[in-house]
Give the backbone structure.
Amino acid sequence: MPRNLRANVELGVQIVVAIAVVVIAGVVVKRYLFPQQENRENLQQRELQIIGTRMNIPNVDWEQNKKTLVFFLKKDCAYCKYTAPFYRQLIEDASKRNVKMLAILPNSVEEGREYVESLDLPIENVQTGLPSSYKIPGVPSVLFVDNQGIIKGVWIGAGPGREKEVREDLNSLFDAKVSY
Protein backbone atom coordinates (compact mmCIF):
# COMPACT_ATOMS: atom_id res chain seq x y z
CA MET A 1 0.00 0.00 0.00
CA PRO A 2 2.72 2.55 0.80
CA ARG A 3 4.26 1.90 -2.60
CA ASN A 4 0.93 2.54 -4.36
CA LEU A 5 0.33 5.59 -2.21
CA ARG A 6 3.75 6.98 -3.04
CA ALA A 7 3.24 6.35 -6.78
CA ASN A 8 -0.18 8.03 -6.62
CA VAL A 9 1.24 11.06 -4.78
CA GLU A 10 4.09 11.37 -7.29
CA LEU A 11 1.62 11.13 -10.16
CA GLY A 12 -0.59 13.76 -8.51
CA VAL A 13 2.36 16.12 -8.04
CA GLN A 14 3.41 15.66 -11.66
CA ILE A 15 -0.12 16.45 -12.84
CA VAL A 16 -0.28 19.58 -10.66
CA VAL A 17 3.13 20.75 -11.95
CA ALA A 18 2.07 20.11 -15.57
CA ILE A 19 -1.16 22.10 -15.06
CA ALA A 20 0.78 24.96 -13.44
CA VAL A 21 3.23 25.04 -16.37
CA VAL A 22 0.36 25.12 -18.89
CA VAL A 23 -1.41 27.93 -17.00
CA ILE A 24 1.76 30.01 -16.68
CA ALA A 25 2.62 29.46 -20.35
CA GLY A 26 -0.91 30.50 -21.31
CA VAL A 27 -0.64 33.72 -19.31
CA VAL A 28 2.75 34.53 -20.84
CA VAL A 29 1.54 33.86 -24.38
CA LYS A 30 -1.63 35.91 -23.91
CA ARG A 31 0.20 38.79 -22.30
CA TYR A 32 3.15 39.08 -24.67
CA LEU A 33 1.99 37.67 -28.00
CA PHE A 34 -1.62 38.87 -28.20
CA PRO A 35 -2.93 42.36 -27.47
CA GLN A 36 -5.03 42.44 -24.37
CA GLN A 37 -8.61 43.58 -24.83
CA GLU A 38 -8.27 45.86 -21.81
CA ASN A 39 -5.31 47.64 -23.39
CA ARG A 40 -7.25 48.07 -26.63
CA GLU A 41 -10.18 49.57 -24.73
CA ASN A 42 -7.84 51.93 -22.84
CA LEU A 43 -6.27 53.08 -26.11
CA GLN A 44 -9.69 53.64 -27.67
CA GLN A 45 -10.72 55.73 -24.65
CA ARG A 46 -7.56 57.84 -25.00
CA GLU A 47 -8.20 58.26 -28.71
CA LEU A 48 -11.71 59.53 -28.00
CA GLN A 49 -10.38 62.01 -25.42
CA ILE A 50 -7.95 63.48 -27.98
CA ILE A 51 -10.49 63.87 -30.81
CA GLY A 52 -11.82 67.42 -30.96
CA THR A 53 -8.83 69.04 -29.28
CA ARG A 54 -6.74 71.69 -31.00
CA MET A 55 -3.21 70.84 -31.99
CA ASN A 56 -0.62 73.61 -31.69
CA ILE A 57 2.55 72.89 -33.62
CA PRO A 58 5.08 75.64 -34.33
CA ASN A 59 5.46 76.57 -38.00
CA VAL A 60 2.36 74.69 -39.12
CA ASP A 61 -0.34 76.73 -40.84
CA TRP A 62 -3.38 74.47 -40.59
CA GLU A 63 -5.45 76.76 -42.80
CA GLN A 64 -2.92 76.45 -45.59
CA ASN A 65 -2.63 72.69 -45.11
CA LYS A 66 -6.42 72.17 -45.14
CA LYS A 67 -6.12 68.50 -44.14
CA THR A 68 -3.06 66.94 -42.53
CA LEU A 69 -1.95 63.48 -41.47
CA VAL A 70 0.38 63.69 -38.48
CA PHE A 71 2.59 60.68 -37.80
CA PHE A 72 4.21 60.27 -34.39
CA LEU A 73 7.22 58.00 -34.76
CA LYS A 74 10.39 57.19 -32.87
CA LYS A 75 13.73 56.12 -34.30
CA ASP A 76 14.24 53.10 -32.03
CA CYS A 77 10.61 51.92 -32.24
CA ALA A 78 10.48 48.46 -33.82
CA TYR A 79 6.72 48.76 -34.23
CA CYS A 80 7.17 52.02 -36.18
CA LYS A 81 9.40 50.18 -38.63
CA TYR A 82 6.98 47.25 -38.79
CA THR A 83 4.01 49.50 -39.65
CA ALA A 84 5.88 51.55 -42.27
CA PRO A 85 4.40 49.64 -45.27
CA PHE A 86 0.90 50.35 -43.97
CA TYR A 87 1.78 54.01 -43.46
CA ARG A 88 3.01 54.17 -47.07
CA GLN A 89 -0.47 53.01 -48.13
CA LEU A 90 -2.10 55.71 -45.98
CA ILE A 91 0.21 58.36 -47.43
CA GLU A 92 -0.58 57.20 -50.96
CA ASP A 93 -4.34 57.41 -50.24
CA ALA A 94 -3.90 60.84 -48.66
CA SER A 95 -1.67 62.23 -51.40
CA LYS A 96 -4.35 61.52 -54.01
CA ARG A 97 -6.65 63.84 -52.03
CA ASN A 98 -4.14 66.64 -51.47
CA VAL A 99 -3.72 65.84 -47.77
CA LYS A 100 -0.47 67.15 -46.29
CA MET A 101 1.90 64.96 -44.24
CA LEU A 102 3.79 65.78 -41.06
CA ALA A 103 6.05 63.53 -38.99
CA ILE A 104 6.93 64.34 -35.39
CA LEU A 105 9.81 62.51 -33.75
CA PRO A 106 11.66 63.07 -30.46
CA ASN A 107 14.96 63.11 -32.38
CA SER A 108 16.58 66.13 -34.00
CA VAL A 109 14.93 67.21 -37.24
CA GLU A 110 17.87 65.86 -39.26
CA GLU A 111 17.76 62.47 -37.51
CA GLY A 112 13.99 62.43 -37.95
CA ARG A 113 14.28 63.11 -41.67
CA GLU A 114 16.87 60.36 -42.05
CA TYR A 115 14.65 57.92 -40.16
CA VAL A 116 11.54 58.81 -42.18
CA GLU A 117 13.57 58.38 -45.39
CA SER A 118 14.93 55.03 -44.16
CA LEU A 119 11.31 53.87 -43.77
CA ASP A 120 10.62 55.09 -47.32
CA LEU A 121 7.83 57.35 -46.10
CA PRO A 122 7.34 60.33 -48.45
CA ILE A 123 6.91 62.95 -45.70
CA GLU A 124 8.63 66.26 -46.33
CA ASN A 125 7.62 68.11 -43.16
CA VAL A 126 9.50 66.54 -40.24
CA GLN A 127 9.57 68.21 -36.84
CA THR A 128 10.95 67.40 -33.45
CA GLY A 129 8.69 66.88 -30.45
CA LEU A 130 7.64 64.44 -27.78
CA PRO A 131 4.35 62.59 -28.24
CA SER A 132 3.52 63.27 -24.58
CA SER A 133 3.67 67.03 -25.31
CA TYR A 134 0.64 66.48 -27.52
CA LYS A 135 -1.06 64.06 -25.09
CA ILE A 136 -0.21 61.14 -27.37
CA PRO A 137 0.59 58.13 -25.14
CA GLY A 138 2.80 56.24 -27.54
CA VAL A 139 4.24 55.61 -30.96
CA PRO A 140 3.45 54.89 -33.64
CA SER A 141 0.34 57.03 -33.79
CA VAL A 142 -1.51 58.75 -36.62
CA LEU A 143 -3.69 61.86 -36.31
CA PHE A 144 -5.95 63.49 -38.85
CA VAL A 145 -6.07 67.27 -38.36
CA ASP A 146 -8.41 69.68 -40.14
CA ASN A 147 -7.79 73.19 -41.48
CA GLN A 148 -8.31 74.73 -38.02
CA GLY A 149 -5.88 72.45 -36.20
CA ILE A 150 -8.69 70.36 -34.71
CA ILE A 151 -7.94 66.67 -34.36
CA LYS A 152 -10.67 64.74 -36.17
CA GLY A 153 -9.19 61.24 -35.93
CA VAL A 154 -6.61 59.46 -33.78
CA TRP A 155 -5.17 55.98 -34.09
CA ILE A 156 -2.68 55.06 -31.37
CA GLY A 157 -0.56 52.07 -32.26
CA ALA A 158 -2.23 52.00 -35.65
CA GLY A 159 -1.13 48.81 -37.26
CA PRO A 160 -1.86 45.08 -37.32
CA GLY A 161 -5.46 44.26 -36.65
CA ARG A 162 -6.54 47.85 -37.24
CA GLU A 163 -5.45 48.50 -40.82
CA LYS A 164 -8.90 48.11 -42.35
CA GLU A 165 -10.54 50.25 -39.66
CA VAL A 166 -7.93 53.01 -39.90
CA ARG A 167 -7.97 53.06 -43.69
CA GLU A 168 -11.77 53.22 -43.86
CA ASP A 169 -11.93 55.96 -41.22
CA LEU A 170 -9.24 58.00 -42.91
CA ASN A 171 -10.73 57.64 -46.38
CA SER A 172 -14.04 59.00 -45.11
CA LEU A 173 -12.19 61.91 -43.43
CA PHE A 174 -10.14 62.55 -46.57
CA ASP A 175 -13.34 62.86 -48.59
CA ALA A 176 -15.22 65.02 -46.05
CA LYS A 177 -15.77 68.66 -46.90
CA VAL A 178 -13.46 71.09 -45.09
CA SER A 179 -15.22 73.97 -43.37
CA TYR A 180 -13.66 77.41 -43.85
User: Anything to note?
Assistant: Residues 144 and 170 are 8 Å apart (CA to CA).
